[in-house]
From TrEMBL:
GO MF term list: ribosome binding; RNA binding; translation elongation factor activity; translation initiation factor activity
Alphabetic keyword roster: Hypusine, Initiation factor, Protein biosynthesis
Family according to the record: Belongs to the eIF-5A family.
SMART domains assigned to the protein according to its UniProt record, in alphabetical order: eIF-5a
PTM entry text: eIF-5A seems to be the only eukaryotic protein to have a hypusine residue which is a post-translational modification of a lysine by the addition of a butylamino group.
Domain Translation initiation factor 5A C-terminal residue range list: 85-154
Keyword presence, Protein biosynthesis: yes
Entry-linked Pfam families: eIF-5a (PF01287), IF5A-like_N (PF21485)
Biological function: Translation factor that promotes translation elongation and termination, particularly upon ribosome stalling at specific amino acid sequence contexts. Binds between the exit (E) and peptidyl (P) site of the ribosome and promotes rescue of stalled ribosome: specifically required for efficient translation of polyproline-containing peptides as well as other motifs that stall the ribosome. Acts as ribosome quality control (RQC) cofactor by joining the RQC complex to facilitate peptidyl transfer during CAT tailing step.
Record-given protein name: Eukaryotic translation initiation factor 5A
Amino acid sequence: MSDEEHHFESKADSGASKTYPQQAGTIRKNGYIVIKGRACKVVEVSTSKTGKHGHAKCHFVGIDIFNAKKLEDIVPSSHNSDVPHVTRTDYQLIDISEDGFVTLLTESGGTKDDLRLPTDESLCSQIKDGFSEGKDLVVTVMSAMGEEQICALKDIGPK
């Protein structure tokens, strides 16, 4: 036996995984899938028949849930694909800073101020207009694979 000490560095984050495996043949339209390392919503699925060399193939067309880019992938239907854990959380909007960051009130009463206004122009202007009118606004934040973005807005009445 050797007397050497071995040190292992863990490169993974602690806690839950950002994705989970799911058989490609069971992923359906309106589900989620990871294509080229991006979390996507599936907008189209087509499956080819088994050919001379075995596997039926699934052709996925997905829209990136954060930047709305269209991505495509082809996977054998019997193989596993990564599916992102996608969560939606509602926060009350407290403030919007000049540089585009928002301050949100969490359920526990703390604040969250690491999110920017959404890139979607119409949603961004709705949030700014509603806030300047003094309305109580609740924003829905979608998060997946370490990314977060405001994806929806609810008006819960005047302050």
